[in-house]
Amino acid sequence: MKSSRLLSILLLLQTGGRTTAARLAEELGVSVRTVYRDVEALHAAGVPLYGDAGHRGGYQLLPGSRTRLTGLFAPEAEALVLAGMPGAAEGLGLGPHFADARLKLRAALPAALREHVDRLAARFHIDAPGWYDEGDEVPFLPEVADAVRAGRVLEVRYRRWKEPTDVDRRLEPYGLVLKAGRWYLIAGPGPRTYRVDQILALTVTDDEAAIPADFDLAAHWRASRSDFHRRLHRGEAVVRISARGAARLTGAAARALADTGVPEPDGWTRAVLPVESPEHAHDTFLGLGAEVEVLAPEDLRDRIASTVRTLARRYDS
């Protein structure tokens, strides 16, 4: 929609300063010729916009010129409302600021659109932790968030899973990630990932964190998540599984069933499923009870059979 694109050009120039037509075209996903036509339309509408030619040229608003957020369309306002759920802001110690910002955004909307997003906000609620997770206590999250914003080095006492469990670390905070209701700190040296709820003590120093100029938090997290999944499933199991058992599979196991499953005459399906470890696979397949039969590897099959015999003796006595 052209009107939306014209407003986007104004906002890009307002926040980014002098910008070339090529850069505007890239941001908006249109041709440079379209940007030229849009700029002419803004000129005709009296927008105080000018351009300079040459290598250092580009378009720029006259100093002091600004636009207000009065051109939001309904889907854009909805996106802002739904992206701004209060839970994360509260955890970061920004609850009052979030409420103020939301109030200002609401006041900038036309009356009809304001009523629309109010109804929308009343229809959606985000509760990130799982059903069997009451949520972690994260007492140092506001301090960690402050250090991330200020770029200050942290000295922490941290609890890890291997011995020695409690260790002292000097961390340069690169960023925070909220994943499935749990906060993670990405910090140098490394960088490495730390669960914020496992920080036992914390001091924010006056030392400035040296964050690499090319560090991209989102890209780093995507790469770390992919690496985690590659390391998580270190083996495979050949199984026969009933329709009822198949319906209980989730995640990688469900995807593998869809990719490798071969229906058998009795209504069961033979498939190759990924497994994390012998211990985890043993517990997982036992949890499916009589709805699954492990065919390979042999040691996993033998281990499950041994457990079943022990259970049978226990319940027969």
Strand-helix topology:
Elements: H1 2-16, H2 21-28, H3 32-44, E1 49-52, E2 58-61, H4 74-83, H5 86-91, H6 95-108, H7 111-121, H8 141-150, E3 152-159, E4 166-179, E5 182-188, E6 192-195, E7 199-208, H9 217-232, E8 235-241, H10 243-246, H11 251-260, E9 262-263, E10 269-275, H12 278-287, E11 292-296, H13 298-316
Helix pairs in contact: 1-3, 2-3, 4-7
Describe this structure in words.
The chain has 13 helices and 11 strands. β9 and β10 (269-275) form a beta hairpin. With 317 residues, it is α+β, with helices and mostly antiparallel strands. The protein is extended.
- What gap, in angstroms, lies between the N and C termini? 75 Å
Low confidence ranges: none
Instruction: Kindly estimate the percentage of residues that lie in beta strands according to DSSP.
Output: 15-25%
- Number of H/I helices: 13
**Strand arrangement, largest sheet?**
6-5-4-3-7
H/E order of the elements? Answer: HHHEEHHHHHEEEEEHEHHEEHEH
| CA gyration radius, whole angstroms | 28 Å
Q: Could you tell me the number of beta strands?
A: 11
Helix share bin: 40-55%
Mean pLDDT: 81
What class do helices, strands and sheet pairing give?
alpha+beta
